[in-house]
Amino acid sequence: MVADGLYPEYWEADVVLRDGSTGHLRPISPLDADAVQAFHMRQSQASIYLRFFTYKSSLSAKELKRFTEVDHVGRVAFVVTRGQDIIGIGRYDRLDDPDEAEVAFNVSDAYQGKGLGSILLEHLAAAARENGIRRFTAEVLPENRKMITVFAEAGYEVDRHFDDGVVELTFNIDPTDRSRAVMEAREHRAEARSMQTLLTPSSVAVIGASRSWGSVGYSLLEHIVDGGYTGPVAGVNPEAFELNGMVAYGSIGEVPGPVDLAVIAVPYDQVLAVTEECGRAGVKGLLVVTAGFADDGGEGLARQRALVHSARSYGMRVVGPASLGIINTEPGVRLNASMAPILPEAGGLGLFSQSAAIGVMLHAAASRRSLGLSSALSAGNRADVSGNDAMQYWEDDPKTRAVALYLESIGNPRKFSRIARRLSRLKPVIVAKSDVMGLQLPPGHAVRTTQAPSGALDAMLRQSGVIRVETTEQLMDVAQIVVGQPVPSGPGVAIFSNSLALGKVLADAAESQELDVVRMNAHLDLDAGQSVALSALRTALGEALEDAAVHSLVLTLIPAVGLAPDQILPVLHECGTAAGKPVVACFAGVLDSAAQLEGLWPDRDGRSSMPEHPAEGAGVPCFGSPGAAVSALGAVVRYSRWREREHGVFAELDGIDDDNAAAVLGHALSDVRDVGLRRLDSTQTARLLASYGIELLPSIPFDSPEEAVEAADSLGWPVALKSVEENLRHRLDFGGVRLNIADAPALRAGIAAMRAELQAFGDPGLEVQTMAPAGQACVIRAIEDPLLGPVVSFGLAGDAVNLLDDWAHGIPPLTTVDAAELVRTPRASRRLRGYQGLPPVDIPAVEELLLRVALLKDRHPEIALLYFNPVLVSPAGLAVLNAEISVGNPRQRTDSARRAMRD
């Protein structure tokens, strides 16, 4: 909760409007009085009437004071600015019922229809929930249909009441599945639109264009012109009259007509001034190739933040700094605003990279393999535009058949996971992730670092359905399959070879990739002459692909006399296209250095082209290594399995009392300062868990044997006797626990013996606890990570997690399928399904507990650590024997129920 009167700086956010431009949202300030008056006086009479139910030519000093002086708790107001002007205002005022507040908006006439009302509502609702408000009311004139629509389409359950000529709307502001879906859909449309402006600009200007051959400015202008860009191009250089045969302009403001994209290639100390000039000239987006920002230490980072702040204040998105450039091969655009000397061939791969060096590698690899691109973007330092933005665009782009991203860091993993999970259901998403994502970041990457357990980020990628690879080579291996061929519908593979040894090697490799070798023909005779051999090959391949159990086919060959790969590949392409199944070729042992053995084999027109129907292949993926071919195919099959499987639902769990949980946490946090942590006591822990339907097996500490007997009587016999010391309470070998104590004499004797055994550990305190049914001990842990947000981990108690680090990790929110996978993933989880004669335990009970923990952690970032050890699972259910919960001031998550652009 915000301290009364204290300015909540963390509420500030840059936001993307419906038209793809940006605005800055922040809490209002008394210093805004003049700007609020100017905003009001720019409004039409109709807009003023709809807001105030009467016409006011200006606001009085008393009204301005009331509107701009708020406490940020019971009275909150946000403004959205563009440059120095306010373009939207939203506020709430708490009513007599402390759970309820009245909300109102006022959007500039010039910016109506751009989604400002819904953005303001999201941020006001988030602030209100933080301050303990649960409902909004609004009074709206019936003719104010735009405002009524804002509330009606926000995803909340809105009650309407008409009285005395006014429509009164009331709704609960807790996020719902529908409100989240509405927010995500609006976010998707806005961010995709902003990327469309960058990737399909109607006009381009190169600022810093040069006549010096070999300079960056010269090359960029030359590449745009030579690439055949279909729109007007302008060169800007105050010291040149002519550039590339065109008239040069001294500044961006002199360029005739609007400019959608400005490519900035000036020295870093001039970039900020040029950005301001672009903003005043109405430029829509910037591509900054200049380095010297976050890649240049603290001062460079400050310059970068100033650049982004300036650009966004004028509504502009920024690609870069230190970007290699952007490419769009669409025939109606043909944009090569990059350092690549030629525009790549058109194709179906959307390519994203961060650093320019990696971008060069990826572009070169795609070119070598004849992998046509739909579009490509190098984010450089990724100060603004990121892979998340690119995925939003590619989801809707019909030219993009698959997406490939090389990520050196992820600034907003929760949002990445959300977008990638949605996109992966439509198109393959290949991610090559650098392992430098912990406390050490690549130069220029100013993002939060993760403290999550090893494997959590990979778990997030698996949940998202992306195809995870390690290197650029593996990325291209997979890309040429998913771009060139349809996605296989199952794991069945047919292997053909003219070498028995090579066929067996390939079969072994296929089985290691969890592929089922359904057919095996390693006796192909290709030495019988071209006409005979090719006819026989066509027949054999066709028969295999007609088999319903065969979902893909791999042809691997050693050189055959008189039969070149270019003669074999048309047959393979023909058979695969006829069957609508993916085919892959591997040519081993070819000594001809001129032969292209990796990449998409061109079609009959001599170049790769995208088919109109996805079941048709754009080209045959060729490999020089059998291992690489099968590894890539295995990755695609695993993706296919993920895409086709049931993804589960976000379960409706009963017994959830979020208000009680919030009350417990609010009381516990009342004396926590800044980043300090506080551990909940046993009563608070039990109340919090009970709010989410989680029962903690009761335990009672004691000082004397008489108190222990009295506690055991109240709990019910038999009981367990335990040390309260965390490192001892589960250790039978150290004497830290005694089980199945049936009566008072046995309890007294156990206390005496345990205290004698534990003297070496400082005589820790003891407690008695209700005995749980015998079962398998498990551990559940949940943390709030600065980068990933909530992370839930599951493992089997003891050496499995303590010595072998045998954990499974999941990123909330979790579906029912996610929870089931979380339980199955640890290697030791076989013990839960029946092991060495032991009966299987109640796995559904474990999955439900994980869903409850994930929901609790997802809704309450105040919980810094939740630790259940042990959770005893039996065939008849489970019991949580011990719970440790620590809380702290929540860090602002990188993804929430309000739209905000993150650095």
What's this model, at a glance?
This protein has 903 residues and is an alpha/beta fold.
Feature tags:
alpha/beta; Aminopeptidase; 7-stranded mixed beta sheet; 25 helices; 39 strands
Question: What's the SSE blueprint?
Answer:
Elements: E1 13-16, E2 22-27, H1 33-42, H2 45-52, H3 61-68, E3 75-82, E4 85-94, E5 100-107, H4 116-130, E6 135-140, H5 145-152, E7 158-163, E8 166-172, H6 177-199, E9 204-207, H7 216-226, E10 233-236, E11 242-243, E12 246-249, E13 261-264, H8 268-280, E14 285-288, H9 297-313, E15 317-319, E16 325-328, E17 335-338, E18 346-353, H10 356-368, E19 373-378, H11 387-396, E20 402-407, H12 413-424, E21 429-433, H13 456-464, E22 467-469, H14 472-484, E23 492-497, H15 500-512, E24 516-521, H16 530-546, E25 552-557, H17 565-579, E26 583-587, E27 599-601, E28 620-623, H18 626-644, H19 658-669, E29 677-679, H20 682-691, E30 699-702, H21 705-715, E31 719-723, E32 737-741, H22 744-757, E33 766-770, E34 776-785, E35 789-796, H23 799-802, E36 808-810, H24 816-824, H25 843-859, E37 863-874, E38 877-880, E39 883-888
Parallel strand pairs: 5-6, 9-10, 9-13, 10-12, 13-14, 14-15, 18-19, 18-20, 20-21, 21-22, 23-24, 23-25, 25-26, 26-28
Antiparallel strand pairs: 1-2, 2-3, 3-4, 4-5, 6-8, 7-8, 11-12, 16-17, 16-19, 27-28, 29-39, 30-33, 31-32, 31-33, 34-35, 34-37, 35-36, 37-38, 37-39
